[in-house]
Amino acid sequence: MGKGGMSTEGHGEGKDGETDNMAAWLVGLNSLKILPFKLPPLGPHDVRVRMKAVGICGSDVHYLKTLRCADFVVKEPMVIGHECAGIIEEVGIEVKHLLPGDRVAIEPGISCWRCDPCKEGRYNLCPDMKFFATPPVHGSLANQIVHPADLCFKLPDNVSLEEGAMCEPLSVGVHACRRADIGPEKNVLIMGAGPIGLVTLLAARAFGAPRIVIVDVDEHRLSVAKTLGADEIFKVSTNIQDVAEEVLKIHKAMGAGVDVTFDCAGFNKTMSTALSATRSGGKVCLVGMGHSEMTLPLAPTAAREVDVIGIFRYKNTWPLCLEFLKSGKIDVKPLITHRFGFSQKEVEEAFETSARGGNAIKVMFNL
């Protein structure tokens, strides 16, 4: 087993035959078990981290419910989890910027640094990316992990470990705002008030967007969006026949042109609405991946020169996320709605809570 949790050995014992490191393993459809997790040797540029906070992502739930997410298929038992922060327990001999006892937020993807995207600085597009809890790479819902030190970011004194774990979903919003060039002259529409829609709302405000409208099918999540600073909210339907009427309502709510729309759901209806609502010359950024294929009004979109851009994960976002959290420009604490410990029963309850949705936004493990 190497860095990033790549494994051909499955789970195993800890040092000297002791089972001192346990992890939450996805062992089958709707089946999670806490089992031993053998760590790889500590390399010269690695650190060993004791996990303290791990959040549940929608992709984690998707793997649990279907054993796949997009083209990634779980074919053998896999440790789950990738939104994480912890405390350094041991550092490799070449690690200079971290010490045992340091609290760190962890970027979960290890790129190759040799391919063209990596050399161009777009390492998030690396075809050989080893990303926590993406088959066949093990995740981070464990007592301890080994990870490259350069992907561990020291937390400011006023930023908690839970907030550190939230840097991962927040990074999606930050990367989306960078891709869409959000600033003080860009009015923003957000389709979807789930966890990613809400962190995109927080990021867009931190980047200076003067007016933000967010829509969703769920009234509770819209109320959360309002408390987080959305200027206007309103409930939409799932019926694609309602797009034209809802676009008129969006324009009225915005009170100006929609410069950038973030589709944080990724369905036929949300993307059609985004393309229709965005002003001529504006941008639509596809963030969510609800549908892999869509039928969309691209000809009228092209005639209005609306740019369509996509994002995949993130790159070089942790320093800015931590600065936003340190300065108070972004407060992610209200997003953490449920907390669980690390027992078999609590792991099962946590994933059931996250899968149900309802008033659950971010479910967090405290290890």
TrEMBL record:
Taxonomy, superkingdom: Eukaryota
UniProt-recorded name of the protein: Uncharacterized protein
